[in-house]
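FAQ: What does the model actually see?

It sees only this:
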Amino acid sequence: MPDGQRLFVGGAWVEPDGGHYEVVDPATEETVGWAPEASRDQVHAACAAAREASGPWSRTSPQERAAVLGRAADVIASRFVPYAELARAETGATTGTARAMQVGVGVARFRRYARVESAEWAIPPQINEAGPMGRAGVMGALAVRQPVGVVTCITSYNNPWANPAGKVAPALAMGNTVVVKPAPQDPLSVYRMAEALEAAGAPPGVVNVVSGGSVGVGEAAVSSPDVDMVSFTGSTAVGQRIAEACGRDMKRQLMELGGKGAAVVLDDADVGSAVAGIGTTFSFYSGQICTAPTRVLAQRGVYGRLVEQLAVYAGRLKVGDPREPDTVVGPVISAAHRDRVESYVELGRKEGAVVVAGGERPPLDRGFYVTPTLLAECTNDMRVTREEIFGPVVVVIPFDDEEEGIALANDTDYGLIDYVWSSDVAKAFRVARRLRAGGVGVNTVGRNMEAPFGGFKKSGVGRDVGSYALHAYSEVQSIVWPG
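And it is asked to produce this:
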């Protein structure tokens, strides 16, 4: 589409009312393509199309819906290299990340939900001693997962494949229809996903994609009376506004919001393992990931070694063109976000933190790059330790004993994923159970992709991933009968 990407509404590719806006490669500052700017009317038309398709799609068999998802995965896999190249250009991710963690995870998630699972389960019969008209006898019951209806999926800029696939695939598997509003910075990949679903046989209106840089596009996708549920990944501030809008109409919500992951490193930890795990913040998506262990709590016995080794680790990472095979750290998403991250580093200096590594813009002619930065001698009341920076910046706070470490970890508005490092596994699990976070990694930053994912406190509402996503995109209905 050389003249600009079209919207996908009701099974048709539609010219946007608001024209097009430029999508910029964060590494080169060159134009990747032209994204469509939907009007509110077009967003409402997409929601209406999803509503019209909702009934027929919900009545298709789970096997038929799974087959569409499986074919979509095959289409994406067949176009893997160009899709990964587009994702790299839109996001600034390294080639390896774009292939493995963006498009690769997208394919895996479609294949995961092409596996049919039972949507109903029996409840043990209950002997009731009394009922409205006397003795009720034995009552049988069945719990059934039913589709919610129309789901608006608002996705994040840091992963335009894995994040929308993690919403769209389970929502469709459960019999919902979707309206996807991708992040304005990198929406073109989501339109490729829509193309794959269209080629796989998804009926018109089952999947709709509307984009735009205007706040009004997202507002219309949330407030439409045709929408039954909103699934959002992004900042806590935006999530709060969406929740307020959903609350007025009692719309279902799934919110994956901000994080300030605490990495509790105890005196008996394998420091090398901790450094390797925490160091992913410097490199993976250039720190633009809500699960990153950005707030390191180091017990006094390992504090010095940990800071020293993290500084060495950060200093060895190549920052530069994400197309080069030896590049580890690519750019952040935009010039504005680079400025924001740099302002936090300067704020940390003013607050009394010591810049042990990084802290200066890398000497590159173009691109929105931030040097991996380590701030030591921090305290838990500094803004750099309390607020989500969303960049390659790690802060380190010393603590004396286990109780203090747990208290510091929990002294935050967030609670998405925390981490514990200790060679004593029993101790590590004991600490993990006391952390107020939706997930805890013990001696790892790895994920189990069937484990429930979501946050405590201001890190979100609800759980998804694996079978939990099927619950998230469904309503549970009870059917009761006399035994």
